[in-house]
Amino acid sequence: MDRARVEAAVRELLLGIGEDPDRPELALTPKRVADAYAEFFAGIGTDAVAIARSGTVHAEDGERGQLVIVRDVRFRSVCEHHLLPFLGVAHLAYTPGERLIGLGTLSRVLDAVAARPQLQERLGEQVAATIAEGLGAAGVLVVLDAQHQCVTTRGERQTGSTTVTVAATGTLGEPVARAEAIALIGAGAATGAAPAAGTDHRTEA
Question: According to its UniProt record, which protein family does this protein belong to (predicted)?
Fold first, then answer.
């Protein structure tokens, strides 16, 4: 990341909204924003597939199981439309092939893909594809449930609204298997039950 350009851009932004970037309270704001952006966008250029591969081990037939699910993995990303954060939980499931992946590695993959300007729909698809490629999984399911600050803090200000998206590959893209995995995850709005008030329920197959 070019920190100098980010800091200069923040200074111009402050001028653009009619503020004085030289007043004491704002003097360090460009640096602080650059620090935050370095963290928010650390995933740009990161090879998430390599992260997934680094955490895999060979599994014998009796060790694989039929389905692996990790629920309630916290994540945050930045919406590319308004550069405002969205935060939520991810539920990650996969059908093992020849290899298993460390459960902590799944969250590292999610973090790497989320730390870029994103759309929630694309984030789910990219995480599913990354796990499928890096692990060689027979099927992957990713359910994301997030609250977007571009919805909660601007426009209609729907402060209770969350968005649920579902992405699936391989065997878990088949309707019966996907429904079974979602039922096990217990992700309320994605199970087919009536969405909670204010919830935008999108399914990305």
Answer: Belongs to the GTP cyclohydrolase I family.
